[in-house]
Every structure is written in C-alpha cells, then in structure tokens.
C-alpha cells in the first residue's frame, strides 16, 4: 500500500493524523538533520500500523516534507485508524 505523508519535524510530541483515505500528517519529535527525522518517521509509522520497520520504506521524497511511503500490511484492518 502507498500512502502520502506530510512530515513536520521538530515537534514536541510524535503524532499521526489521518487527513484522507491515503494521506497522513505525521509530527516527528526529531530535527531534520542527518536523516534522523526520516528514521523516526519510520518508527512512528511502524508503531501506528503495527508492522515491523522493515516493512516500511520511503519511496519518494526522502529530502522533502511531502513523501510517498510504501507499507506492506499483514492486517488491512489497521487502515481504519
């Protein structure tokens, strides 16, 4: 499954907000320095969708705040969150 993600780095707390069926806004509690925000984004999405981090990859936008992320879901029911 591919989702669109808009990332806000340097937030006080990590949070995932669904904005449409395939779009999410993720607040990341890391600065966008040296790939730390991207690494934390994968951790946050892993917890939210309850999948291992190895099942999540950034397909497009690694250096942008707007990203396309691929997630291999084992349980499609987690999309209803």
Walk me through this protein's architecture.
With 81 residues, this protein is an alpha+beta fold. 17% of the residues lie in helices and 36% in strands. It has one helix and five strands. It has one helix at 36-49; strands at 2-9, 15-18, 23-28, 56-60, 66-71. A five-stranded mixed β-sheet has the order 2-3-1-5-4, with helices on one face. Strand 4 (56-60) and strand 5 form a beta hairpin. The longest helix is centred in the middle third of the chain and has 14 residues, at 36-49. The two termini are 15 Å apart. The mean pLDDT is 92.
List the helices and strands and how they pair.
Elements lengths: L1 E8 L5 E4 L4 E6 L7 H14 L6 E5 L5 E6 L10
Parallel strand pairs: 1-3
Antiparallel strand pairs: 1-5, 2-3, 4-5
Quaternary assembly: single chain
SS strand fraction: 35-45%
Strand order of the largest sheet: 2-3-1-5-4
**Mean pLDDT over the residues:** 92
Contiguous uncertain segments of 5+ residues? none
What general form does the structure show?
A: globular
Rg, rounded, reads 12 Å
Tally of strands = 5
Can you give the helix content as a percent range? Answer: 10-25%
């Amino acid at each position: 499954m591919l989702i669109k993600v808009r990332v806000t780095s340097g937030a006080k707390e990590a949070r995932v907000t669904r904005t449409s069926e395939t779009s999410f806004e993720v607040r990341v509690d890391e600065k966008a320095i040296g790939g730390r925000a991207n690494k934390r984004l994968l951790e946050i999405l892993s917890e939210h969708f309850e999948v291992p981090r190895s099942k999540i990859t950034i397909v497009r936008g690694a250096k942008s705040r707007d990203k396309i992320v691929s997630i291999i879901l084992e349980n499609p029911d987690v999309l209803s969150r």
